[in-house]
């Protein structure tokens, strides 16, 4: 196995599988493709891998344990590396919000280190700070993509392209139809996270009002807190005295509007520092604490949703549908955050307690383009279904599944629409996926 490109002329290269976007979905896709023996390129527009794990460093990995059991696959392999490190760099804990079940709390620096290691071990060629300049299509296929980065322009071709950009950038540039946000064009709020260190956990978490909602309401009335801060949402970090804040959320942010994003990011920074100072002055256990690890950018929950072979609906989720081509299990609630101008959170249950559903592979397959697959938050799902499926572990499984499908398409010389969806589910089960392929969790 090797990851070197076949180069015809300077600035031109050819790969078996090219993955765009090095977030949880893209990393899982690239590692899986390379392990299948395919020459694999992974392209990331920023200067680091990780996606939301870098934008919101330390964000807990929720949704990996439906019914308290692991979804398996790439997710389980990754977290086991953290659990089994010496000393351990992650711990499974119950979420403070019961609807979310167990989650993984981890050392964010070590987690990213291990993801880099997995890419290196698999032989993936990684290019950072590299963006799409132009996409050339011929009939129903992507012919080539012009990428530009620190080394200049490169004209890249691939047998199969995997769009894991979150925003569906490659698909949109190739002419794929999409919907932006919900039916009204509204998108979930964008969040900037941070940590506070040297917090007295015993004092900070000894409170009947879990998120200080009554205090927040009073301080909003007095003008000390921004009206969007309806509750002060913080959780124990991995290391003692470390507290993770997922509180500062801005509604009405368009993740595709770069000038608007930068304006929103600076406003979010201001609110983070204000909230940290408020906590030092007013909350038990925070008197010696200080802000650290402020997210480098906003965490974007929702932009484009691509139109694919199957649109997952909230009715299918509510019926605990276990699709024949289901590639990952999920029981996450409808985690809808500040949609449009609404300044509210929703954690309503998506299906009956004690059951789960699966995400069908067909939600990741386009109707037309023959050499393109998707994974991550550009999945085809209705608004409420999307608010349940978007967990990072599910995105990892989506990425793993499209890489397996891409390998099958390369092997059999067929368009991605010609790959048997149930064969993809079976391959996921063979690679450790749980609760799929007719087997229970």
Description:
There is one protein chain. The protein is globular, with a radius of gyration of 21 Å. The strands form 6 sheets. Strands 1, 2, 6, 7, 8, 9 and 20 form a 7-stranded mixed β-sheet that branches. Strands 12-13-11-14 form a 4-stranded antiparallel β-sheet. A 3-stranded antiparallel β-sheet has the order 3-5-4. The mean pLDDT is 94. β7 and β8 form a beta hairpin. The protein has 441 residues and is an alpha+beta fold. Helix content is 29%, strand content 24%.
Instruction: Catalogue the unreliable spans.
Output: none
What share of residues are in beta strands?
Answer: 15-25%
Rounded mean pLDDT is: 94
Derived from helix and strand composition plus strand pairing, the structural class reads: alpha+beta
The helicity comes to 25-40%
Features:
441 residues, alpha+beta, seven-stranded mixed β-sheet, four-stranded antiparallel β-sheet, 12 helices, 24% strand
Write the layout of secondary structure elements.
Layout: E1 12-20, H1 24-35, E2 40-43, H2 52-55, E3 61-62, H3 73-83, E4 90-94, E5 102-106, H4 108-122, E6 125-127, E7 131-138, E8 141-149, E9 152-163, H5 169-173, E10 178-180, E11 190-197, H6 201-204, H7 213-221, E12 234-236, E13 243-250, H8 258-282, E14 290-292, E15 304-306, H9 314-318, E16 326-330, E17 334-337, E18 345-348, E19 357-360, E20 372-374, H10 383-389, H11 392-412, H12 421-430
């Amino acid at each position: 196995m090797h990851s070197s490109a076949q180069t015809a002329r300077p600035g031109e290269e050819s790969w078996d599988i090219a993955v765009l976007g090095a977030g949880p979905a893209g990393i899982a896709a690239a590692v899986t493709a390379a392990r299948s023996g395919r020459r694999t390129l992974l392209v990331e527009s920023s200067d680091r891998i990780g996606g939301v794990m870098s934008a919101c460093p330390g964000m807990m990995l929720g949704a990996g344990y439906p019914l308290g059991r692991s979804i398996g696959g790439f997710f389980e392999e990754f977290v086991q590396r953290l659990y089994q490190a010496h000393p351990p760099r992650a711990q499974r804990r119950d979420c403070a919000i019961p609807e979310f079940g167990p989650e993984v709390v981890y050392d964010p620096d070590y987690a990213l280190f291990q993801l880099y290691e997995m890419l290196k071990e698999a032989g993936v060629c990684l290019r950072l700070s590299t963006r799409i300049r132009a996409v050339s299509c011929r009939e129903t296929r992507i012919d080539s993509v012009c990428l530009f980065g620190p080394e200049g322009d490169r004209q890249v071709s691939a047998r199969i392209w995997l769009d894991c950009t979150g925003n569906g950038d490659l698909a949109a540039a190739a002419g794929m139809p999409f919907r932006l946000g919900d039916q009204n064009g509204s998108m979930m709020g964008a969040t900037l996270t941070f940590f506070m260190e040297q917090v007295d956990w015993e004092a900070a978490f000894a409170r009947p009002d879990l998120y200080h909602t009554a205090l927040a309401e009073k301080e909003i009335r007095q003008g000390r807190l921004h009206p969007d801060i309806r509750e002060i949402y913080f959780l124990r970090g991995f290391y003692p005295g470390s507290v993770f804040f997922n509180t500062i959320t801005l509604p009405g942010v368009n993740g595709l509007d770069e000038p608007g994003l930068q304006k929103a990011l600076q406003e979010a920074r201001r609110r983070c520092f204000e909230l940290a100072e408020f906590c030092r002055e007013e909350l038990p256990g925070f008197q010696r604490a200080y802000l650290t690890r402020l997210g480098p950018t906003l965490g974007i929950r929702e932009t484009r949703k691509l139109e694919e072979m199957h649109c997952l609906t909230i009715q299918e989720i509510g019926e605990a549908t276990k699709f024949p081509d289901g590639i990952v299990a999920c029981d996450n609630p409808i985690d809808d955050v500040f949609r449009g101008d609404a300044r509210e959170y929703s954690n309503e249950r998506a299906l009956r307690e004690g059951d789960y559903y699966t995400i069908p592979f067909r939600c990741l397959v386009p109707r037309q383009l023959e050499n393109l697959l998707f994974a991550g938050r550009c999945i085809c799902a209705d608004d409420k279904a999307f608010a349940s499926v978007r967990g990072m572990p599910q995105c990892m499984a989506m990425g793993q599944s499209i890489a397996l499908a891409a390998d099958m398409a390369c092997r059999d010389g067929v368009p991605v629409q010609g790959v048997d969806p149930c064969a993809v589910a079976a391959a996921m089960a063979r690679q450790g996926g749980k609760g799929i392929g007719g087997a229970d969790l």
